[in-house]
Amino acid sequence: MEPIVITSENFEEEVVKSDKPVLLDFWAPWCGPCKMLSPVVDKVAEETEDIKVGKVNVDDNEDLAMKFKTMSIPTLIVFKDGVEVNRSVGVISKSEILDLVK
Known about the structure:
The protein is built from 4 helices and 5 strands. By secondary structure, it is an alpha/beta fold.
């Protein structure tokens, strides 16, 4: 499954009300490290059906970036039952992403 574009408008439905853990990638189009991490996040989304994967463009959704105190990008945040349970800042490997979600 492809990552879902997460916005302020669909955050509640896609993340808070999700029956699966959610991995969110906070990124921006101008961010070099984000461009490195993005294909890895896409691969996790394609290969893992027991988690929902979403991407938040911080330029378009500053309110979400501020709400979750995203000071550096890329930032990955894992939510379970709508609550943040784990976070990673910077580029990490696919196996590290999967460990983050466990």
